[in-house]
Amino acid sequence: MGGIQARMEGVLARVLPSARVAPTRLHEAMRYATLEGGKRVRPLLAFAAGEITGAAPERVEIAAAAVEMMHAYSLVHDDLPCMDDDVLRRGKPTVHVEFDQATALLAGDALQALAFQLLAEHRLADDPATQLEMVKALALAAGSRGMAGGQAIDLESTGKQLSLPELELMHIHKTGALIRAAVFAGAACGARLPDESGAKLDRYAKCIGLAFQVVDDVLDAEASTATLGKTTGKDAKQGKPTYVPALGITRARAHAEALRQDAHAALAGFGERARRLREMGDFIVTRKF
Predict the structure, then answer these.
(1) Residue 160's CB: how many other CB atoms inside 10 A?
(2) What distance in Å separates the CA atoms of residue 38 and residue 69, rounded to the nearest whole number?
(3) Domain holding 169: CATH number?
C-alpha cells in the first residue's frame, strides 16, 4: 500500500498545475486540496483492480489520479458552509478556511474538469470505446446518479431517521459510486473482462463502497478528531442520518463485516489476481482511521 500511496503523491504533484503558474492562488488551492493527505483508497482500489486484467501501472496511475481528483473536489465542496460546513479535513484546515469560499468553489470545479482532461488526453485502454466507458463511469459517479445525488439526499434527510435500505440508497450514490468507478477504471486499463466477470467486480466494488461508509459512520462516533483528521461527532450534532443510529455500533460493525464477506465472495474465480482487492476489502473494514 505504501508504495502505491507514495507513487500517487508523485503522480498527482506532476499532473496538477504548478502553484507558480497563473492563476497562482487557484492552483495553490487545488494542490492544497489534493496533496499531502488522505488514505488514497480509490487509487489503491484502481491498482488492485488493474491486477485482475494485467493493466500497465503507467495507465492505472493516470486513471487513479482522475478518480482521486474527483474525490478531492467532492470533499472541498462538501466542506463548504452551504453543505456540511466543516473546518477540518485530513488534519488541516478545509480549503475554504485556508483560502476563502469562492476559491474553494473554483478549486473544486477545476479539479473536476482536470479529472476529465486526464482521461481524455492519455491513452489508457487499447480500445477507444473502453476509454469512453471510463469517462462515462466517472461522469455518472459524479452526477445526480452519483455523488451529487447522494449529497442531495443527505441534505434532504437531515433530522430524519432513515431505514437501512434508504441509507444504502443514499450511500450507493454518495460514497459508493466513485469507489465503483475507481475499480472499473483500474480494470479497464487492462484486458477486457467478460461481462460476467465485470459484473462480479462491480458487485465487489458496490459491497466495499457501502462497507467503507458503514465504518466511516462508526469511526465518526467512536474515534477522536486527532485520529481521523476531521471533526468527529458532527453528524450526530447535525442530525445527519448514519448507520450508527439506524443500527447501533455493534450491528453496524456486523453489517460491515457481512458486506466484506459478500465482497470476497464476489471475487471467487479470480484467484491470486484478486489478492490485492481482498486485502483492500480487509483494510477498509478493519481500519481505525
Answers:
(1) 10
(2) 12
(3) 1.10.600.10
